[in-house]
Amino acid sequence: MDSFLSKLSILFVLLVATPLALAQTRVGFYSTSCPRAESIVQATVKKHVNSDSTVAPGLLRMVFHDCFKTARPNLLLRGYEVIEDAKTQLEAACPGVVSCADILALAARDATVEVGALTYRVPTGRRDGRVSLASDTANLPSFTDSVAVQKKKFADVGLSAQDLVTLVGGHTIGTVACQFVSYRLYNFTNSGGADPTIDPSFLPTLQSLCPKNGDGNKRIALDYGSGNNFDRSFFKNVRDGRGILESDQSLWQDSTTRNFAQRFMGIRGLAGLTLNVEFGKSMIKMTNIGVNTGTAGEIRKVCSRVN
Ligand SMILES: *[C@@H]1O[C@H](CO)[C@@H](O)[C@H](O)[C@H]1NC(C)=O
Known about the structure:
By secondary structure, the chain is mainly alpha-helical. The protein has helices at 2-21, 37-51, 55-67, 80-93, 100-114, 147-156, 161-168, 203-209, 233-239, 246-249, 255-265, 275-287, and strands at residues 26-27, 123-124, 175-177, 219-221. It binds 2-acetamido-2-deoxy-beta-D-glucopyranose (NAG).
């Protein structure tokens, strides 16, 4: 009988525990626990994006850092004040209910929609990590990474080469400081000249945007000529040797990533891809990587630190 009871209790534990272990994010997670959650985030994002054009790319960048396990919503990243603003309002409306991880996933969506992307439904129900700073920051893609390295870093977190091209396509908005560009312009790999993958007719323009020995903190658009709109012109710039980051330009050197870029550009004879549609899908994949759900983690009271 004792043994029967213990088997029964094991069975009970399995039955109860399994749904928790399988808990996943889903659309509308807060529909009863905090019905205004998504509209509060959306209104907050709209307010900030309209007063500061660096907010939308900042939130996208933050999702990247989060996914590649660097610091969680981080005070140093542009756009962090949006997360904190939304969190303050949500704590007033529904204390202890909405996670910072969900606020970030929703805010990144709402910000890209504000600058021209199509909307998509964000599954929610994430919980926040109990550590604030991850020790391993080595896997965040870098602006000097080859395509092989970029593919590897994405594959390591479960993202495909198509996700890579799609998410790098997010550089259709955003800026970079000249200190990460100038090395390509004057004495690239000690050659005495510029990176040969830069369009020679574009080089003087880029050199005037980032002058030799100029201000390394000056920021320039990643999508030349269209930095404030979410569109596919980024891929045309890359095709034309006008990619600003070495890692972005390198997508054109690799046949797999070039093919995806061409499909986004709508090249005749290739199965077309729509950046607006694929971007949402890849963002959902990225924001679901390594999430805490169910009873894992916690709901932070303040997004910059654990409770
Ligand atoms: C490029 O860098 C190398 C190594 O530092 C240096 O020897 C060379 O003089 C530089 N060339 C120019 C044009 O600045």
